[in-house]
Specification:
The complex is a heterodimer.
Chain A lengths: L3 H5 L47 H11 L6 H23 L2 H21 L8 H18 L1 H11 L16 H9 L3 H11 L5 H8 L3 H20 L11
Helix pairs in contact in A: 2-3, 2-4, 3-4, 3-5, 4-5, 5-6, 7-10, 8-10, 9-10
Chain B lengths: L9 H8 L5 H11 L3 H22 L5 E2 L2 H9 L4 E6 L4 E4 L7 E7 L7 E8 L7 E3 L10 E6 L1 H4 L5 E10 L5 E11 L9
Parallel strand pairs in B: 2-4, 3-9
Antiparallel strand pairs in B: 1-7, 4-7, 5-6, 5-8, 8-9
Helix pairs in contact in B: 1-3
The chains are: A mainly alpha, B alpha+beta.
């Protein structure tokens, strides 16, 4: 795939500093020091298991690292396709904002490809650990302030193509309302009070005079029924049992 | 790639999404989701379901018995709420404006000692029809029941009366009427049903 024909194709994800791409703006802030897996896989928390070394992500990363910079567009596209939804999901959880999550995915993946192309990611098969560390550091940065976020976006704005990141489709709220109406009163109340603004069981329990554990039991029952009703058989028991 | 992974249960994914997991557990789920698309899709499904609930609620198409604290939470986030407070066995002349998001009634009722609360709803548009509601949530230690009404449906209703009877149900099944409330609804001027 790194042969002459493939090498003529435009890179799937433009990365600063490669042929045909504008370099980062001179005034842009220095790139944050992102740890490579061999240095510090992740600043905190869980690392990824070594058995991922032969995963599709690791294979794509090795192909990118083995090729001349920007000469493995198919591998780059593959890596992007695999990782963008996952990073976006990470961003949604930790930033609670869809646009910020999409920005995070682009920033982290551009950085990852940049590191792979340049050979600075010394163990490409550990690309997932690198991405996890980059996610954590970037989210920490973003939380430090909107200004920093804007700086990061400005740095990468010209270097990133429009990302096709999968986002779960919105459900028809009329159908959801019909299904909610079929739930027992307590389950409907707990589901609405939970999802109105994504509140944990402790908050809902405090507002209803219930323990958090009781709320979780009611919530579990309600969600199972709601999922079956809204999604049909395809949704029954699907989550967590892929 | 996920063939060797042990997938996460839906409850754990939801706890992660809602911020109920501690830092260590959150890190573990983060790491898992970075390598497991099946669990990622399961989480997406839960999040989409939650967004559907939120959309339905904000559209005023969901009726639920909740609590005053939840109504305050919704109010603080900008929802336009029309609220009626009824004394014990009271009544209210009520309506709902086109731009109201939620319609709420707060009913004073003696709840001391009540373990289970049911209700019966009747209205003048369906003579003789009783809508029975079972095991309503209420906050122990208060003497109030908070009901969020399906505002979208009420906006289309013509003038009518609705009677709501709250009933305590003892563990043995004995039923005791706690209060009876009357809502005299009139459509908002210029709206459907007016």
């Amino acid at each position: 795939m790194d042969g002459p024909e493939a090498s003529r194709a435009a890179p799937a994800v433009p990365v600063p500093g490669t042929a045909g791409e504008a370099p980062p703006p001179a005034a842009a802030p220095a790139a944050r020091a992102v740890p490579t897996p061999s240095e510090s896989p992740a600043p905190q928390g869980a690392a990824l298991p070594p058995e991922m070394a032969d995963s599709p992500e690791a294979r794509a990363a090795r192909r990118i690292a083995a090729a001349a910079p920007g000469r493995a567009p198919e591998a780059e596209a593959e890596l992007y396709r695999l990782l963008a939804p996952r990073v976006r999901r990470y961003g949604q959880r930790h930033l609670r904002d869809g646009h910020a999550a999409a920005d995070l995915a682009q920033q982290v993946l551009v950085l990852t490809l940049e590191q792979l192309r340049s050979g600075r990611l010394r163990e490409p098969e550990r690309v997932l650990s690198f991405v996890l560390g980059a996610c954590r550091l970037t989210v920490t940065d973003l939380r430090r302030g909107e200004r920093r976020r804007e700086d990061l976006l400005q740095r990468h704005a010209d270097a990133v193509s429009v990302a096709d990141i999968h986002v779960a489709p919105r459900l028809d709220h009329g159908r959801v309302a019909d299904c909610l109406a079929r739930l027992p009163e307590r389950e409907r109340a707990v589901i609405v009070m939970t999802f109105y603004d994504d509140q944990p069981s402790e908050t809902v329990g405090r507002e209803l005079g219930l323990t958090a554990g009781h709320v979780r039991v009611i919530r579990h029952r309600g969600i199972e029924k709601l999922r079956r009703c809204v999604l049909g058989d395809a949704g029954a028991g699907a989550a967590g049992e892929p | 790639m996920s063939g060797t992974l042990k997938h996460l249960p839906a409850d754990e994914l939801l706890a992660y999404w809602l911020g109920e997991t501690d830092a260590a557990a959150t890190d573990l789920v983060d790491a898992h989701l970075l390598q497991c698309d099946a669990c990622g899709r399961a989480l997406d499904e839960l999040v989409a379901l939650g967004a559907g609930v939120r959309d339905a609620f904000r559209a005023g198409t969901v009726a639920a018995f909740t609590s005053g604290a939840f109504v305050r939470r919704a109010t603080s986030q900008g929802l336009r709420i029309r609220e009626y407070r009824l004394p014990h066995n009271g009544s209210a002349n009520c309506s709902v404006a086109p731009d109201d998001d939620l319609l709420v009634s707060r009913l004073e009722v003696p709840l001391a000692g009540v373990q289970r609360l049911d209700a019966v709803a009747e209205n003048s548009l369906e003579p003789g029809v009783r809508h029975e509601l079972h095991d309503l949530p209420f906050v122990p230690g208060t003497d109030e029941v908070t009901s969020i009404v399906n505002a979208a449906a009420v906006k289309a209703w013509p003038e009518h009366e609705l009677w709501l009877t709250l009933v305590a149900v003892a563990p043995g099944g004995e039923r005791r009427e706690l209060g009876r409330y009357t809502f005299r609804h009139r459509p908002w001027p210029g709206q459907a049903g007016a």
